[in-house]
User: Which sequence fits this backbone?
């Protein structure tokens, strides 16, 4: 789950298409079209913070185990992308 917070306070959340993606034991690429944030009212020129979260944001639970690695967080010029979830492939253009 990605969260984006702006000034003034607008919070937008983008969830992975596969709710069990964190349980996979291999490297996974997840491309997020920034329009998923801007369509929720986020002004991309006023982003103050971005968060990465796992689990249920409104009712968090302690006790998870394992490791998650996050790397290569970057912005690209607009381009066509396929979603990472094999079960629900979608092309973003």
Assistant:
């Amino acid at each position: 789950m990605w969260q984006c917070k702006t000034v003034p306070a607008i919070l937008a959340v983008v969830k992975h298409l596969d709710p069990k993606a964190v349980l996979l034991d291999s490297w996974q690429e997840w491309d997020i079209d920034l329009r998923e944030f801007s369509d929720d009212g986020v002004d991309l020129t006023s982003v103050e913070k971005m968060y990465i979260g796992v689990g249920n944001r409104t009712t968090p639970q302690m006790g998870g185990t394992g490791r998650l690695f996050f790397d290569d967080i970057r912005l690209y010029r607009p381009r066509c992308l396929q979603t990472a979830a094999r079960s629900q492939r979608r092309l973003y253009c």
